[in-house]
């Protein structure tokens, strides 16, 4: 009887242990499921502007081409020197024709020196240009013997002479220090009085070249010679 009681006790203990294990297993919380993230619609890729006619023109045709900077201060008419700086001329005309300069401004004005434009950071927030992919590859310098006199159109660059892209400037006086260091590629033929007017724009207090008033470039209109 004693032996049977011990065996019965052990059997009951085993069942109880097994029962506890089963109960513990049953009480384990179900694994958490990570909610599926909503699908993100693909973002539209910037489109490429249409090719420019300037890339197809001869040197003689480019010499006969004009561009009109239509600014808030008035119009400035430009002619170009493609025989001296063909790549700079084509680059400027291409960007102008594609509307790159629309909505920019003369963002740098250095009294008695230069007025400068072409900065895409000055595009309005709703500018359609922000949805386009322009080619703004750096240009190899095309230094030439053109003196930087008043009215000369030239291209700004960084420390590397071959880093010019979109920033252009117009000289307000004879600037010998720029000769042979910046690529002159055109000049003002009409509207020097507008250039002078822009040069009189007030400068922000404490700044050397930041205008206190926005002088917008509404567009740069290209006038190609008739075929």
From TrEMBL:
The keyword Plastid does not apply. Residues 26-37 have a biased composition (Low complexity). Residues 38-49 have a biased composition (Pro residues). Residues 26-56 are annotated as: Disordered. It is an enzyme of class 5 (isomerase). One of its GO terms (molecular function) is isomerase activity. It catalyses: [protein]-peptidylproline (omega=180) = [protein]-peptidylproline (omega=0). Residues 70-222 form the PPIase cyclophilin-type domain. It holds the Pfam family Pro_isomerase. Keywords: Isomerase, Rotamase. Its EC number is 5.2.1.8. Belongs to the cyclophilin-type PPIase family. PPIases accelerate the folding of proteins. It catalyzes the cis-trans isomerization of proline imidic peptide bonds in oligopeptides. This is Peptidyl-prolyl cis-trans isomerase. It comes from Chloracidobacterium validum.
